[in-house]
Structures are given as C-alpha cells and as structure tokens.
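Q: What changes when adenosine-5'-triphosphate is included in the input?
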Amino acid sequence: MGFKMGIVGLPNVGKSTLFNALTRTAAAQAANFPFCTIEPNVGEVNVPDARLDMLAKIAGSKSIIPTRMTFVDIAGLVKGASKGEGLGNQFLANIRETDAIAHVLRCFEDDDVTHVEGRVSPVADAETIETELMLADLESVEKRRAGLVRKLKGNDKDAAQQDRLLAAAQAALEEGQPARTVKVDPEDIRAWKLLQLLTGKPVLYVCNVSEADAASGNAHSAAVAEMAAAQGNSHVIISAQIEEEISQLEDDEAEMFLGEMGLEEPGLDRLIRAGYELLHLETYFTVGPKEARAWTIRQGTSAPQAAGVIHGDFEKGFIRAETIAYDDFVTCKGESGAKEAGKMRSEGKAYTVKDGDVLHFLFNT
Ligand SMILES: Nc1ncnc2c1ncn2[C@@H]1O[C@H](COP(=O)(O)OP(=O)(O)OP(=O)(O)O)[C@@H](O)[C@H]1O
Ligand SMILES: [Mg+2]
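A: The predicted holo structure follows.
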C-alpha cells in the first residue's frame, strides 16, 4: 500500500529543492530558472517516528525499518497553463494518481531568485495554481462525461454513479470551487477517489521561507496560514533551502545546526507528519529481535486488513492478533513485561487497529 504526495506550485518556488531535501538526494535538478524541471522526479521517503526507535531500543532489534511515503515533483505551472502557457498542464497527468497535494508557495524574498510574476505574493500564487488545477479538472470531467453517454443509455449502474459524481464535481468547478468542496456520501467514496480529480485531493500548503524565518515564519506565511484556515486546509512552514543542506549532514551535525536555528526538528519531519495526518494514516508496529518495523494503515483499518499490508496470506489466513498498546509496551519494558502485566490482548477479526499498536499476527496458510 503506497501513499503518494504530488508537489505542485509555480516555477522556481523551490519544489525540486524540497524534493531533494525529502529524498536526501540531488536527484532532481534544482536551479534558479523557471521550468528547470520537465520530467517528473519520483522518490521514497522514510516517515520519521520516534516511537519506532524507542521500541527497537527496548526489544534490542537489530534493524529499524520505518514506513515510507512517495513524493512526486513535477514541472511548474503558470497562469494559462490549461491553455498551453509555460509548459502547459500535461505534467499534471503525473500526479493524478497521488493521494494528496503538497502545494509549495514562495514565501521568501530574494531578488536573485526569479519569481515568474515578478513579486512575492503567496496567496495570489495559490489562487493562480488552484485555478489551473480546477481548469484541468473541468476539462477532464467534461471529457469523461462525454465518454459515458453511450453507457448511460445502456443503463450501466457504475456509469450512472460516475456520471452523478462527475456532474457534482462539474457544478462545483463551474462555480470556481475545488472538487474537494463536494460532499461525498460514504458509499460513493471509492468511486469518487477513482475519478482522481486534482482539486478533489486534500492539500497541504508548504510555505517556503528564508533561513532567517524558518523558526517562526513571516508575514507571507502568516497570510497563507489565514487562507489555509479559511479553506479548512493545513499548512507547514519550511525553508527548503536549509532543509536541503541539513539533509546532507550527519545526524549529530544536523542536530547542532537545527539548534543554532532555533528548530527542534527538521521541518521535513513536520511536513511528512502533516502529510500523514492529511491522509488519515496511522502506524502500527511489529517488533522482534531481528527488526522493529512500522507499517502504514488508514484510520479504521481492521486487524485482518492491517495484516494484509504485510502479506496477502496474513489477511486470508488471519486467526488473531496479539496486541500491545505502544504506551504499555514502553511502561512494561517490552513484550514479556506486558504479558506478565496482562497488557497483551488477543484480538480477533473485528478489532480496529489503533495508532501505535504493537502487533503479532497468528495465521493459517
Ligand atoms: N527557501 C529558499 N530561500 C532562498 N532560495 C531558495 C529557497 N528555496 C529554493 N530556493 C532557490 O530557488 C531556486 C528554484 O528552486 P527549485 O529549482 O527547487 O524550484 P522549482 O519550483 O523546482 O522550479 P521549476 O518549476 O522551474 O522546476 C533555486 O535557486 C533554489 O536554490
Ligand atoms: Mg523543479
């Protein structure tokens, strides 16, 4: 089960810089000219979780395997992209299948770094990009509805559902509202996600500030925060440039560097966690002498489904899950302590896994 975030924004706002920092590589070319990125960059990122390190320490696990998230960095969009301005919007196809959008906004002043519209104004930039995403969605909605006409005549139930959802999206988009404002009934959620509308995905605004503003933000990021709150979206403040530098350092050096800047943790950790929250994801753990490992599930996942994340056979042959809550595992100093204290529960098929559960699955093959 992979979770993917697509990175969007105007050209030259720091998308590739952020991508490189996240993936700790220089895989994406980042440079001070618009449309530097053409081909998309795809990279996997560890989801930082201090609990995993703690569990590994207690259990003496030889290796630690964090769970992962995927980021996709694409070409910048400009006003009129849907009509072919700049590089056009063809690259949006690369993020259709992502689960959420990280929208990078330039919140740093630097006369040496070109802004495609000649001024730093992140709220206006956000509107420009959102408009282009809405136009791209509108185009795809219209195309798809046209493609459904024949099936609808044949009383195809799935087609009818799709058309109903597309019509709702179209109505919102035509009023200048993103598709995420459409209220979707629980029984339609699966079909809705399959429409892969860009403005239907949850969005996280990334305020890219200068080094000096990394700890407390600035007037630009404050304006973004206000906009995000009004929309019901989240935001994080990060200096992509500094994060890229930190990501190249050894852990102890990085810690010193962060301290000097007044930061408690890398901004990237906050960003990844915010993405995780945005997607309503949770983590459970498997812990043993060989490895301590984190696994990603959606909130509300049943024990057999959670087992299925490790292997399909675990789900099919699921018998029960020996379960210890994270806090109990720590307080009782490990599995045997938790067992003695009666904190190890045996949970069946109906159990909903909770964030932080330490699980051991029993299954038939
Ligand atoms: N926080 C920051 N402060 C100052 N300069 C920055 C910051 N973040 C990025 N930059 C600089 O901005 C320039 C553009 O960065 P980058 O190439 O990452 O942008 P991009 O959004 O990927 O652009 P494109 O859409 O053209 O691919 C680079 O020179 C980079 O060093
Ligand atoms: Mg780029």
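Observations recorded in class: The chain has two domains: 4-278, 300-363.
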